[in-house]
């Protein structure tokens, strides 16, 4: 039995289109996704604002809340919770050069309006968590905006969100690049600094995504540990990534099993989940995957996580201490490899 509760987003079951080619699978309705998520073993769903209310740009505040309540009813039907809502700020014409740090004031106003609507939607779905994946917040042309100004604009925007709703928690999902060339908030360290600069640091934390840490050249388990040390790991996006290239969102653990094991281990050792946090997955099916297997990468990721949790439960801390005392790190490393490879 796993000690954790799991979550996933509707976008993780997608049609296979990429920047170089069209869809390869049929779309699946939201209700069918919820049904399958529950069957597979998920407890909660993560959302973009426009997955809950597709045409929210054209609706009044009251209409947006009404639409959100319909999705809440559908979640209730399948006994699923909403974990977070994220404003999808990277699709609109007004955010082609970023939202919160766009050089145009009217664009910044739109971004904040959208973030506040995402907060409204979150409240209707019964969650206090707003995730900010800062997709286009940074520069495409390095000289086009000052990183000092841009950083201050981000803090200012988050302060306005914290003021807009006194209970909302803002969770930044750091990523060093893509789709932007140079992002402003690339790692957990950046997130902690931004958090400390806001009017309510307790309500500002991070969402560590394994692939994003690897893209920054960092170890995901250490990034998780860093946020845990400050009590600011609000959620995680576990997945995997083959080195520093385009963002791959591979199934959890398929690329580097030892690194995956250490992510599970650090979560387990620190009681992650005891305050209601979910183990979130952000994984993509391969483009070659057929319709019938649209959920297979989710099943696989969950299975791998749970198998690694069993391994982490078996970890022999007394042996570790002995090795550490003797500085026998060769012995400790071999022990870990045997733990992972033996049945
Ligand atoms: C992309 C991100 C993206 C976010 C999602 C939630 O690199 O990982 O999938 O997690 O939009 O904000
Ligand atoms: Mg993510």
Question: In terms of topology, how is this protein built?
Answer:
Elements: E1 6-8, H1 30-40, E2 44-48, H2 49-52, H3 61-77, E3 81-86, H4 105-125, E4 129-133, E5 138-139, H5 147-164, E6 169-173, E7 182-183, H6 188-197, E8 204-209, H7 210-215, H8 220-229, E9 233-238, H9 257-269, E10 279-281, H10 296-314, H11 317-325, H12 329-341
Helix pairs in contact: 3-4, 4-5, 8-9, 9-10
The structure holds D-glucose and magnesium ion.
Residues 48, 86, 131, 133, 173, 175, 209, 237, 247, 282 line the site of D-glucose.
How many DSSP E strands? 10
Uncertain residue segments: none
Secondary structure category: alpha/beta
Distance between the termini: 18 Å
Radius of gyration, in Å, reads 20 Å
Kindly report the spatial arrangement of strands forming the biggest sheet. Answer: 3-2-1-10-9-8-6-4
Structure description:
With 343 residues, the protein is an alpha/beta fold. The chain has helices at residues 30-40, 49-52, 61-77, 105-125, 147-164, 188-197, 210-215, 220-229, 257-269, 296-314, 317-325, 329-341; strands at 6-8, 44-48, 81-86, 129-133, 138-139, 169-173, 182-183, 204-209, 233-238, 279-281. Helix 3 (61-77) runs parallel beside helix 4, helix 4 packs parallel to helix 5 (147-164) and helix 9 crosses helix 10 (296-314). The radius of gyration is 20 Å and the shape is globular. Magnesium ion binds at residues 133, 173, 209, 237, 282.
């Amino acid at each position: 039995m796993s000690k954790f509760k799991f979550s996933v987003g509707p976008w993780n079951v997608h049609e296979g289109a990429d920047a170089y080619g069209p869809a390869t699978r049929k779309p699946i309705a939201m209700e069918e996704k919820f049904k399958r998520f529950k069957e597979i073993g998920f407890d909660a769903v993560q959302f973009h604002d426009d997955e809950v209310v597709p045409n929210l740009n054209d609706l009044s505040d009251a209409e947006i809340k009404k639409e959100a309540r319909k999705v809440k009813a559908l979640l209730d039907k399948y006994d699923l919770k909403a974990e977070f809502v994220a404003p999808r700020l990277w699709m609109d014409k007004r955010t082609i050069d970023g939202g919160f740090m766009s050089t145009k004031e009217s664009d910044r106003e739109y971004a904040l309006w959208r973030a506040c609507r995402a907060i409204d939607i979150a409240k209707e779905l019964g969650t206090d968590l707003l995730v900010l994946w800062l997709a286009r917040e940074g520069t495409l042309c390095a000289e086009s905006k000052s990183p000092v100004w841009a950083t201050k604009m981000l803090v200012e925007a988050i302060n306005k969100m914290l003021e807009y709703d006194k209970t909302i928690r803002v969770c930044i999902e750091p990523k060093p690049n893509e789709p932007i060339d140079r992002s402003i908030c690339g790692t957990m360290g950046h997130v902690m600094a931004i958090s400390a600069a806001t009017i309510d640091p307790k309500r500002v934390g991070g969402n560590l995504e394994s692939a994003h840490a690897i893209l920054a050249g960092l170890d995901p388990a250490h990034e998780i540990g860093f946020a845990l040390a400050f009590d600011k790991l609000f959620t995680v996006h576990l997945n995997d990534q083959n080195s520093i290239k385009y963002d791959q969102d591979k199934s959890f653990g398929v690329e580097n099993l030892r690194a995956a094991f250490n992510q599970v281990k650090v979560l387990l050792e620190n009681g992650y989940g005891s305050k209601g946090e979910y183990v979130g997955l952000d994984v993509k099916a391969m483009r070659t995957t057929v319709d019938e297997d649209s959920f297979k990468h989710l099943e696989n990721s969950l299975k791998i996580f749970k198998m690694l949790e069993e391994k982490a439960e078996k970890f022999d801390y007394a042996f570790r201490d002995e090795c550490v005392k003797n500085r026998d790190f060769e012995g400790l490393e071999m022990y870990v490899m045997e733990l992972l490879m033996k049945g």
